[in-house]
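Could someone model 2-oxoglutaric acid with this protein?
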Amino acid sequence: MNNNQSDIYDELMSKDWITNLDESEYGLVRYDEPPSYETFIRECFLKNRPALFTANCGLMNQWACIAEWLSEDRTKPDFDRLINLYGSMIVPVTKCSSNVTEYGSDDNKLTMRFDEFVHLWRNNDTTAQYYCKDWHLQKMSDETKPLFYSIPIYFQSDWLNEKCLAENEDDFRFVYMGGDGTSTPSHMDVLGTYSWSANICGRKRWCFSKPYPIEFIQEPGDIVFVPSEWYHDVTNIGYTISINHNWFNAFNIFRIWKHLCLTLDDIEHRIEDCRSLMSDTWYEHCQVILQANEGMNFISLYKLLYIIAQRRITGDNTNKHATFDLWIIEKLIQTMLHTSTFLYACDFDTLPQRPKALVKQIHSYIEKQKQ
Ligand SMILES: O=C(O)CCC(=O)C(=O)O
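Reply:
Sure, complex below.
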C-alpha cells in the first residue's frame, strides 16, 4: 500500500491516541461518495465506528466477479455458470435453523461439493437453510489468477492477511452465498478484528447490538465496515452473494492484544485447578489453549509483528504509512515486554528475533527516516 498522507501520520505519531480513542460518536457513517483515506481514518478507525459505503461510491464498479457470477441483468446469481466455474470444489456450508442461535456452533457445520450446495440454494424448499460461508475461494483457486475483486483503499492496510499470504497460511478472505432468510447469529468477529463485507447481489439486514444498537439494510453494491468488537447479526434478503475480509492493522492492533490478554486470563481461571500438576509448563499450556481457541497466541502475534516489521523495513522507505506501522509495532512490543505472562510464556530463543533487538532495529529505522 502506498499512501502518503504524511500530515495525519505525523500527527498520530506525536500524540497518545492509542489509549485515548474518541468513541463518543458511534452512529453509522454513511458515505455516498468515496471519502479520502484520511477522512476514513478520522471518522471510522479512530472512533471505531461502523460505516456504509453505498453503491454510489462505485467501489465495486470494476469487480470481475460481478460480470462473471451474475445473470445478465446483474440482479441474481447465474447458478449454471457458478457450477461450471466451481462445481467440484468442496465448500463449507452452515445449516441455518431457528434454534441455532449460537455463533460458530459445530453441530450445524457441513462440507459438500459446490454443485450440491447450489442445488439446495436454488431450491425453494431448502434455500433458507443452507448458507455457504467462510469459503476461502480466492485461496483455493489457482493463486496465479488475479483477485476476482479489488480491495478498496480503506481496507488495504491489513497485517493479518498480509502475514497469512506471506507465510502461505489459511487466510481471512471469504465468499458468502445464501438464500432468502439465511443468517449469521449475533457475534463479535474473531479476535476483535475489523471486517468489511461487499454485496455482489441480494440485500442484507444488519443489526448491531453492542456497544450500540444500529439497524440498516445493505443493498447490492454497498460495502459495510464493521469496527472492532462490535456485536452484530446479519440476515440475507433474496439470493445473496458477498465478499468479506477479517483483518487488523495499526489502528486496532492494541485491541487485538487486549482481547488476547483477557482471553488468556479467562483460560487461566478455568484451568487453575491443574496448575500444581504442571508447574513449569503452566504458561506454555495456557498459550497452547489460547492458540487453539483464538487462532493466535502471544508467540504467534509476536511472529506476525516481526514479519510485518521486516516487510516495512525492507520495503519502500519513503512510505509514511510504513513508518507509522513500525511506530505502532514498536509500542506494542514494548507493552508486551512489560507483560509478565508474555515473559513467562515465550522462550525468546525460539523467536525469529529477540523482542529487544527488534525494538532497537525499528527504533533506529524510524530515527533514520527523520533525518
Ligand atoms: O454476511 C454474513 O452472514 C455475516 C457477515 C459478518 O458477520 C461480518 O462481515 O462480520
